[in-house]
C-alpha cells in the first residue's frame, strides 16, 4: 500500500510540475561521473559540495561523516588531475583547541591565484555555527592550520565568492539564528580583515539564506536566494555590493533547497536549482535543473540533470563554475551517498522558455 501511495503521489507531482515528456537538453553534457565510489571512503553520508579550478585540474570538497550534525563530520577533498579524481582525503574537522569536536558544514572553495581558500562552518547546528578557513599554496595538496573568522562573520555560507574590480572579495552569506537573513561580507586581504553589510531582510516577512552571485556586463550585481516563500528570490546592487534592493520573487520554484549560479564569459548566466513543485512537497529535491538567462530575469530551461519519480530522492546543493576552457562544471549531492560531477559545453546548449513557472516540454 505504501508503494502504491508513493507511486500515485509521484505521478501527481510529475503532472503538476512537469510535462509528461520534459525537456532534457542532455546533448550539452560531455561528462557525467561520480567523484568517488562508496568503497573508496569511510563515511556513509555526504553533502554540500563545492568545486574550483586549480593550476593542473580541478578540486572538489564536501562534508562527509556518519550523518549531518554528527560531531565526526569533516571536510573532504578530491583533486581531478589528468581527468581522474583522486581518493578523497579529510582536510579539516571541527576539533577545537580545548579538545571538543563539532560537526563541520558547507565548504566553499575559492582560488585566489597565489593561494586556494577553503571556507567552512563549525558548530552543533546552523543557528550556532561559526566560520573557519584553511588555505593552500600547492593546489590543495597540503593545507594550513584553521583560521577562525571574527565574531559576526561566517564567510561565504554556501556559494562561492566573487572578486570585484576594486580587489574586494565579495562573499554571499546568511544566518539562521534570528530567522533566515542574508547579508554580504567582504575582505580585501583574503581573510585577514573583514567588513559586512547589515542584514538584507528581516527574517520574518521575507526569509532568505544562501545567496549566489551574478555579475552583469553593466556592472550591476545580482543575488539569487533560497527562500521560505517556495520561490527563488532576487536582489540587485549598483554600488559593488554595498547596498541592495528589496527582495523580489522570480518565477522559479524553490522547494526549500540550495541553489548556485555563475555568470559566463559571454555575459550570460547559468543557474542550478531544483525545479520541483513545492506545493506537492515543500522539501522535495528529486529533480535538478540547469536554467539559462541573458539578463538574470527571464530564465529558460537548459538541461535536466536529474528527474526521479520518487519525490524522496535527493539531488541537491549544487555548485557551478566555468573553467578557463569555457566548460561549465557542476557538482551536487547524489542521495546523500555520493558527489556527482557533470561537465556541460555551453556552446551546445539549446534552451526552451520556462513559461508560467513550468519546466518546458521536449
Keywords:
single chain, 362 residues, five-stranded antiparallel beta sheet, 1 helix
Report the strand count. 26
Low-confidence stretches: 1-16
Mean pLDDT: 94
Shape: globular
How many angstroms separate the termini?
33 Å
Alpha-carbon Rg, integer: 19 Å
Helix content: under 10%
DSSP helix count?
1
Classify the beta-strand content into a percent band. Answer: 35-45%
What structural category characterises the helix and strand content? Answer: mainly beta
Largest sheet: 5 strands, antiparallel
Secondary-structure element sequence?
A: HEEEEEEEEEEEEEEEEEEEEEEEEEE
Question: How would you briefly describe this protein structure?
Answer:
The chain has 362 residues and is mainly β.
Write the layout of secondary structure elements.
Layout (H helix, E strand, L loop, with lengths): L1 H16 L11 E6 L10 E10 L2 E9 L8 E8 L2 E2 L3 E4 L11 E8 L4 E7 L7 E7 L10 E2 L13 E2 L5 E7 L5 E7 L7 E2 L11 E8 L5 E7 L3 E7 L10 E6 L6 E4 L5 E5 L13 E7 L6 E8 L7 E8 L5 E7 L3 E7 L7 E2 L9
Antiparallel strand pairs: 1-25, 2-3, 3-4, 4-5, 4-6, 7-8, 8-9, 9-10, 11-12, 12-13, 13-14, 15-16, 16-17, 17-18, 19-20, 20-21, 21-22, 22-26, 23-24, 24-25
Structure commentary:
The chain has 362 residues and is mainly beta. It has a domain at 1-31 and 255-362. Helix content is 4%, strand content 43%. It has one helix and 26 strands. Strands 2, 3, 4, 5 and 6 form a five-stranded antiparallel β-sheet that branches. A five-stranded antiparallel β-sheet has the order 19-20-21-22-26, with no helix packed on it. Strand 4 (74-81) and strand 5 (84-85) form a beta hairpin.
Amino acid at each position: 500500500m505504501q508503494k502504491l501511495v508513493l507511486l500515485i503521489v509521484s505521478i501527481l507531482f510529475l503532472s503538476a510540475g512537469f510535462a509528461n515528456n520534459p525537456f532534457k537538453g542532455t546533448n550539452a553534457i560531455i561528462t557525467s561521473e561520480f567523484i568517488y565510489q562508496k568503497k573508496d571512503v569511510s563515511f556513509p553520508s555526504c553533502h554540500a559540495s563545492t568545486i574550483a579550478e586549480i593550476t593542473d585540474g580541478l578540486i572538489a570538497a564536501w562534508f562527509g561523516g556518519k550523518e549531518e550534525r554528527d560531531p565526526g563530520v569533516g571536510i573532504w577533498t578530491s583533486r581531478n588531475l589528468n581527468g581522474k579524481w583522486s581518493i578523497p582525503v579529510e582536510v579539516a574537522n571541527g576539533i577545537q583547541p580545548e579538545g571538543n569536536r563539532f560537526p563541520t558544514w558547507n565548504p566553499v572553495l575559492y582560488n585566489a591565484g597565489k593561494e586556494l581558500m577553503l571556507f567552512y562552518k563549525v558548530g552543533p547546528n546552523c543557528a550556532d555555527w561559526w566560520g573557519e578557513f584553511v588555505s593552500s599554496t600547492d593546489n590543495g595538496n597540503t593545507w594550513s592550520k584553521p583560521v577562525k573568522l571574527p565574531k559576526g562573520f561566517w564567510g561565504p555560507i554556501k556559494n562561492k565568492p566573487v572578486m570585484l574590480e576594486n580587489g574586494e572579495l565579495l562573499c554571499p552569506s546568511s544566518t539562521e539564528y534570528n530567522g533566515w537573513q542574508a547579508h554580504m561580507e567582504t575582505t580585501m586581504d583574503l581573510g585577514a580583515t573583514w567588513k559586512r553589510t547589515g542584514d538584507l531582510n528581516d527574517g520574518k516577512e521575507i526569509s532568505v539564506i544562501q545567496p549566489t552571485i551574478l555579475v552583469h556586463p553593466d556592472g550591476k550585481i545580482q543575488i539569487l536566494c533560497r527562500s521560505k516563500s517556495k520561490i527563488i528570490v532576487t536582489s540587485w546592487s549598483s554600488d559593488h555590493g554595498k547596498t541592495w534592493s528589496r527582495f523580489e520573487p522570480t518565477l522559479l520554484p524553490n522547494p526549500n533547497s540550495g541553489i548556485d549560479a555563475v555568470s559566463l564569459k559571454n555575459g550570460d548566466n547559468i543557474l542550478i536549482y531544483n525545479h520541483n513543485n513545492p506545493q506537492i512537497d515543500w522539501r522535495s529535491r528529486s529533480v535538478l535543473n540547469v536554467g539559462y538567462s541573458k539578463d538574470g530575469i527571464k530564465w529558460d530551461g537548459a538541461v535536466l540533470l536529474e528527474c526521479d519519480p520518487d519525490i524522496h530522492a535527493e539531488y541537491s546543493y549544487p555548485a557551478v563554475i566555468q573553467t578557463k576552457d569555457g566548460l561549465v562544471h557542476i557538482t551536487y549531492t547524489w542521495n546523500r551517498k555520493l558527489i556527482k560531477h557533470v561537465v556541460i559545453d555551453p556552446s551546445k546548449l539549446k534552451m526552451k522558455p520556462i513559461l508560467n513557472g513550468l519546466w518546458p516540454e521536449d
